[in-house]
Amino acid sequence: GAAPDWHVDEFDTERPFTVLVIGAGMSGIAAGFRFSQAGIPVTMIDEAHTLGGTWWKNRYPGVRLDTPTFGYSFSFAQRADWPHQFAEGAEIEEYLLDIAQRTGLADRVEFSTRFVRAAWLEEEQLWEVTTSGPQGERTRRFSAIITAVGQLDRPHIPDFPGRDSFRGVVMHSAEWDDAVAWQGKRVAVIGTGASAYQIVPAMYRDVESLVVFQRSAPWMLPAPSYHAEVTEAFAWLVRKLPHFGQWYRLWVTLLGIPGRLHTVTAEEGWPGVPVTISAVNQRVRDDLIARMTEQYADRPELLSIAIPSYPPGAKRMLRDNGVWAAALKAPTTTVETSPISHLTERGIVTESGIEHEVDIIVYATGFKASDYLDGMEFVGRDGIEIHEYWRGDARAYNGITVPGFPNLFMLYGPNIVGVVSGSLHFMIERSVEYALKAVRELLASGAHALEVTQEALERYLAWVDPQNRRMSWGQPFVHTWYQNAMGRVSQIWPFTNAEFWEVTERVDLADYEVLRSGARAG
Ligand code: N01
């Protein structure tokens, strides 16, 4: 990929500018690569013993991409020979490993190394960081920290009464144990989100019985090529037409979005609440229901529970080529919609009084998405810890910087998920570029740290929050991981990717306090 148009050697700095990147998944790899290109010394750590982050962790049956593969890659590492329209998990893991190897990052990551805490040293204008790894605890100093720890990382396992009394095998989707032989067993899957949507169809044929616990039905967009290989025609275009891959990615991430956002934006005065939010949203709903009506023509009782009771787009839309309905219709599958009352040593009891006896419980119950930097301690200026500052409502300017925490850059931070864009890579890359520009500003000015102002953050949120409240996922009657415990949409970027491009195009120093070691310079 094209290197940044500057290099650290151009600047006459009195001390080296060093960066710690926490996490060696998608975000960490992008940051490590781009910062290294600019000649900035980068230290990377990861808790795991290998690279890949979420794509290393999630190894449940059926794991694959649910957005088109050709939009799901870095602009600086395009791949022309993806085998599938929607890549399998292992293919993406390979892709990330390959980038890390080719860029030399793979040899530089400190694996099995946990971030413990970081404290901002006011006098030195540096972060003092403690990590814990194979050599025990280490304390080091860095000019800046980049967090690249993802959002969907810490499993959420509901605290059902009697949860721990269950005697069988228990697995969360993201903590799959390959050693567990589930074939021929009685399995319960709790949840019907994106993970369950992949697990259930991959398992149902090979189990003795399957109970799917559905609290809310998922919306599914038709995607006939969901399990297909890349067509010859498409492969030909990618191979033969110069830059086709880049143009396609541009279409997926930028040009195709405004129309899609329109379908999930509320219309003032629209009376369809709480199942639709606008006339277009209603049309999408009608189309999707028409498709389901065909899918479940022979099973009207399943149709009635398959239709979601919330607006399309309010939760992540899944991609479907019919496998979900096929799995639910199988004679060995039961869809349970009565809420879970408690667990026993034998299985799961519903509020309607039925006990489902099972050998294995799969928690496809999602993640503590809005608990940003959970389990990590960052003590910023004035001795305030970041979670103390956030009070359960994580906020960051452009999803990247936080008042009180100079030279801390978050990747895939608050309000960064481009939910209808399909390209996390775009958002991650833009966040990395913004952090890189901030560092360039520091090197060019001879200052040591940048701290975003509270006013800049508030101005930013006054722009983002009302827009999220207009979207289907921001409605008060909707419950999704896009919102935090306060009900604020803390995960989603409600605008187009082009707008994120714009806000990350330039670091406006008017939004920052510029700090020099030894004194506040203002
Ligand atoms: O988690 P989720 P996920 N009792 O939070 C249910 C990404 N991803 O792991 O909807 C009963 O979406 C909950 O019910 P409800 C993607 O961004 C990507 O599936 O809250 N049920 C829901 O059905 C995705 O959005 C891929 O009513 C309970 C489910 O558990 C994100 O990860 C693949 C419950 C949780 O769904 C998370 O997806 C997989 C309870 N107490 C995931 N608590 C790709 O393909 C929760 N549920 C790239």
Could you walk me through the main structural features you see in this protein, from its secondary elements to its overall organization?
Strand 4 and strand 5 form a beta hairpin. With 522 residues, the chain is an alpha/beta fold. Helices cover 29% and strands 18% of the residues. Helix 1 runs parallel beside helix 12 (424-445) and helix 4 packs across helix 10 (323-329). It has a five-stranded parallel β-sheet with strand order 3-2-1-7-19, with helices on one face. The relative contact order is 0.14. It has helices at residues 26-37, 54-57, 89-102, 194-203, 232-240, 244-255, 257-263, 279-295, 300-306, 323-329, 386-390, 424-445, 454-470, 497-503, and strands spanning 19-22, 42-45, 109-110, 114-121, 126-133, 136-142, 144-147, 169-172, 186-190, 209-213, 220-222, 318-320, 333-336, 340-343, 347-350, 355-357, 360-363, 377-379, 408-410, 449-452, 512-516, 519-520. The chain has 14 helices and 22 strands. The protein is globular. The mean pLDDT is 94. The chain binds 3-acetylpyridine adenine dinucleotide. 3-acetylpyridine adenine dinucleotide (N01) binds next to helix 4. 3-acetylpyridine adenine dinucleotide is lined by residues 65-66, 152, 158, 173, 190-196, 198, 213, 215-216, 316, 340, 364-366, 479, 481.
List the helices and strands and how they pair.
Blueprint: E1 19-22, H1 26-37, E2 42-45, H2 54-57, H3 89-102, E3 109-110, E4 114-121, E5 126-133, E6 136-142, E7 144-147, E8 169-172, E9 186-190, H4 194-203, E10 209-213, E11 220-222, H5 232-240, H6 244-255, H7 257-263, H8 279-295, H9 300-306, E12 318-320, H10 323-329, E13 333-336, E14 340-343, E15 347-350, E16 355-357, E17 360-363, E18 377-379, H11 386-390, E19 408-410, H12 424-445, E20 449-452, H13 454-470, H14 497-503, E21 512-516, E22 519-520
Parallel strand pairs: 1-2, 1-7, 2-3, 4-18, 7-19, 8-17, 9-10, 9-17, 10-13, 11-12
Antiparallel strand pairs: 4-5, 5-6, 14-15, 15-16, 20-21, 21-22
Helix pairs in contact: 1-12, 4-10
The chain binds 3-acetylpyridine adenine dinucleotide.
